[in-house]
Amino acid sequence: MAQHKRSVTVIGLGPMGRSMVKAFLDAGIEVTVWNRTASKADDLVALGAKRADTVADALDANELIVVSLAHYQAMHDVLGQAPDHIEGKVVANLSSDSPEHTRAGASWVLDHGGKFLTGGFMSEGPNITHPDSYLYFSGPQDVFDANKDLLRPLSRQEYLGEDYGLAQVFYQAELALFNAFMLGWEQALAIVDRSGADLDRFVANAAEHPHTYRDFMRQWAEFAKQGGWADADSLNLMYNATQHIIETSEALGVDAELTKTIQDYHRRAIAATEKAGHPVSVYRVLRGDAE
Ligand SMILES: NC(=O)c1ccc[n+]([C@@H]2O[C@H](COP(=O)([O-])OP(=O)(O)OC[C@H]3O[C@@H](n4cnc5c(N)ncnc54)[C@H](OP(=O)(O)O)[C@@H]3O)[C@@H](O)[C@H]2O)c1
Question: pLDDT tens digit string along 58-72?
Answer without folding.
Answer: 999 999 999 999 999
